């Protein structure tokens, strides 16, 4: 028998509360990152998305009016999932306006598929295996050992989720890049609650 709180088992509701608290705690680890600014030239990159499609920022900018590039932490992050779901809900409007959406994450392909299951994302999601894209946009940071241990205690295994022992995550950020390669909009907030 499990007591239900607002339709969820009590332990799931508690788990979400703990994840939110840990997410806020890890905000302090990200304080040194500042991200790129509006007006900066966006670093180009090439990668493959989860479906194997080549993603080349320079080519995407030639074919589309803009690219919406966003960084997310992983399928375990409720704020990231909410944001991705909102992007999916806006996908038709964004593509009608000529935008192409690319999400970048340190999580493995297996976990990207979990993100897709949770959010129904149908746009390109890229595993940034060596953090090259996150570093180019200055959104990467290393979590401290104490926070990694706390996350693990609540069932969030970053090593399993990301397939390495680096504990590197991005500050959630969104960049809108115009055809000239300039960043025309930035959402970069170290407080994950406002993602």
Describe this structure in words.
The protein is an alpha+beta fold and 195 residues long. Helices cover 37% and strands 23% of the residues. β10 (173-178) and β11 (183-188) form a beta hairpin. The termini are far apart. The model is unreliable at 1-8 and 20-30 (pLDDT under 50).
Short overview:
The protein has 195 residues and is α+β, with helices and mostly antiparallel strands.
Mass-distribution shape? globular
Q: How does the helix and strand content classify structurally?
A: alpha+beta
The helix content is 25-40%
Counted by DSSP, the helix tally is 8
Total number of beta strands: 11
**How far from one another are the termini?**
35 Å
Q: C-alpha Rg, in Å?
A: 17 Å
Low-confidence stretches: 1-8, 20-30
- Walk across the major sheet and give the strand order: 7-6-5-10-11
The run of helices and strands is: EEHEEHEHHEHEHEHHEEE
């Amino acid at each position: 028998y499990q007591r239900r709180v607002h339709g969820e088992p009590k332990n799931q509701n508690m788990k979400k509360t703990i994840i939110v608290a840990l997410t806020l705690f890890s905000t302090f680890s990200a304080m040194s990152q500042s991200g790129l600014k509006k007006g900066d030239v966006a670093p180009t990159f090439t990668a493959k998305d989860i479906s194997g499609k080549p993603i080349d920022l320079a080519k995407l900018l030639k074919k589309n009016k803009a690219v919406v590039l966003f960084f997310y932490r992983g399928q375990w992050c409720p704020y990231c999932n909410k944001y991705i779901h909102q992007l999916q809900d806006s996908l038709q409007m964004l593509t009608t306006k000529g935008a192409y959406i690319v999400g970048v994450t340190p999580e493995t392909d297996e976990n990207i598929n979990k993100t897709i299951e949770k959010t129904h994302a149908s746009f390109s999601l890229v595993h940034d295996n060596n953090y090259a894209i996150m570093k180019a946009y200055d959104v990467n940071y290393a979590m401290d050992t104490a926070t990694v241990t706390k996350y693990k205690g609540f069932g969030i295994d970053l090593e399993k989720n990301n397939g390495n022992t680096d504990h590197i995550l991005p500050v959630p950020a969104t960049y809108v890049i115009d055809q000239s390669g300039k960043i025309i909009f930035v959402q970069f907030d170290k407080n994950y609650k406002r993602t």
